[in-house]
Write a structure and sequence with these properties.
Length: about 450
């Protein structure tokens, strides 16, 4: 089973959630080597292997958030319009920023409500350098504000209190994030420049109260239909509840409630009370498909290369497995054939001993058949030959092979006698196909005779 790891990089803190276990480590600097070393130690302490899904959380104070209404429902048109909006409304060149958005839905009349998040590309340099040295490629880079509603839903328990709209004030070490949640989605977000480190003097507390009033007014005007009655305090705000309630009591009809889970209480008991882990813990419980996710080209290319390499490795291993399987099947069949052939040879050898007597009997029968079969018996040939042989022909030699041919030699006084004899033999059934092979004259006791040889095939 894969382990979910959520990592947030702050100015001086590395916050990590491995499963549901929360860890935070102070960073002397934000150099990639320092971040990589700290992250490596945390992963080793939590015994995290290679089967991990890493999500990176980007601080809200490094992101510019705008709520935009666009007259379209088509995703392609919305992206084109947002590109034009960036060129006109953001004080940076388009090539210098990474941006992402979430479509909150169509109002049913003319506009789609969009939450646009923009961050400078150099903000992601440390992220890319820190993780690539550990051979870790994040699944997504998220915005910390969207983790807060997940944290509140997990900590509250009673989900009926989250119906409609509500606000969340998350106080971190160096900044605070005021979030408006409407219809269970992030409606908008405002950064307050004071955090737990600054709220230790009365002057900073007064500035914080002024900034909080302005942020509350801005969010209320941004979504007029969102009627909020509750403000949930998270992060390092447990000691600032009275301060926040004082601001709310004057001009806003909101009730403040501090929320914490067991994991955060255990973490705060160690003395780290000025650090917020709400976003990390929120994303450790849930990451929605439509959450704002920044796409960094360098990480995207590395992920695609890693995916292609994995596919090639799987293909190579599959081919090797198939080749080994085919080779094994061929070897097994060859062994089976050799074993079968050896068995047959052994069986033939054992049977040959038992069939030797049968072979002798078969050979004797073969010889006897030459004399018993009237159609193939040499006696039949001789009998028919004597019947057809005239007095003018003298046969001197017989040559007979069973089931092959018959030839005989002799002599006569005249060649016509030999031709007549050959024709007589050819006309008979038993000597059909008889041919005169040669004739030759010679002297025999002061007489001229003609030698011949006749072959019957």
């Amino acid at each position: 089973m894969r382990t979910k790891v959520v990592i947030e990089l702050a100015e001086s803190w590395l916050k990590v959630s491995v499963g549901r276990k929360i860890t935070a480590e102070s960073l002397p600097s934000t150099e990639p080597a320092v971040i990589s070393a700290a992250l490596s130690r945390i992963l080793k302490q939590n015994k995290s292997g290679k089967d991990i899904d890493v999500f990176v959380v980007l601080n809200r104070n490094k992101i510019t958030v705008r709520r935009v209404d666009l007259p379209s429902q088509e995703p392609k048109e919305i992206e084109q319009m947002l590109g034009l909006y960036l060129m006109r409304q953001i004080p940076y060149h388009k090539e210098e920023v990474c941006w992402a958005y979430q479509n909150l839905g169509f109002d049913g009349v003319s506009n789609s409500h969009i939450v646009l998040a923009v961050a400078l590309k150099n903000v992601f340099k440390n992220i890319v350098s820190s993780f690539t040295s550990l051979n870790i490629l994040p699944e997504s880079i998220l915005m910390s504000s969207q983790g807060l509603p997940y944290y509140v839903a997990d900590a509250l328990g009673d989900k009926s209190a989250l119906q409609g709209a509500y606000m969340i004030l998350d106080i971190d070490a160096n900044y605070s994030d005021l979030v408006l949640v409407h219809n269970h989605k992030l409606g908008s977000s405002v950064v307050i420049p004071q955090g737990a480190s600054q709220l230790k003097s009365d002057q900073e507390k007064e500035r914080f109260a002024i900034e909080l009033k302005q942020a509350l007014s801005a969010l209320s005007n941004e979504i007029p239909e969102a009627k909020c009655e509750k403000l949930f305090l998270t992060g390092a705000s447990s000691q600032r509840v009275i301060l926040v309630e004082g601001v709310l009591a004057k001009d806003f009809n909101l009730k403040a409630q501090y929320l914490a889970v067991k994991e955060y209480d255990s973490f705060a008991s160690n003395g780290l009370k000025d650090v917020s882990l709400s976003a990390v813990m929120g994303f450790s419980s849930q990451v929605a498909k439509d959450d704002i996710k920044f796409i960094v080209p360098e990480l995207q290319i590395k992920k695609e290369m890693k995916s292609k390499l994995q596919q090639l490795m799987i293909l190579g291993v599959s081919l090797i497995y198939i080749l080994i399987s085919l080779g094994g099947i061929a070897l097994v069949r060859l062994i089976q054939q050799q074993f079968y052939a050896t068995g047959l040879k052994a069986k033939v050898t054992s049977l040959s001993k038992d069939t030797k007597e049968l072979d002798d009997v078969a050979n004797k029968l073969k010889i006897a058949r030459q004399y018993v079969d009237p159609q193939a018996s040499v006696l039949s040939y001789l009998h028919e030959l004597n019947r057809l042989c005239p007095d003018s022909i003298t046969i001197t030699n017989y040559n007979w092979e069973w089931q092959k041919n018959l030839s005989f030699r002799g002599y006569a006084q005249q060649i016509p006698d030999i031709l007549d004899f050959t024709n007589a033999l050819s006309s008979s059934k038993i000597f059909k196909g008889a041919q005169n092979r040669y004739t030759r004259r010679r002297k025999l006791k002061d007489k001229d005779v003609v030698d011949f040889e006749i072959v019957v095939k």
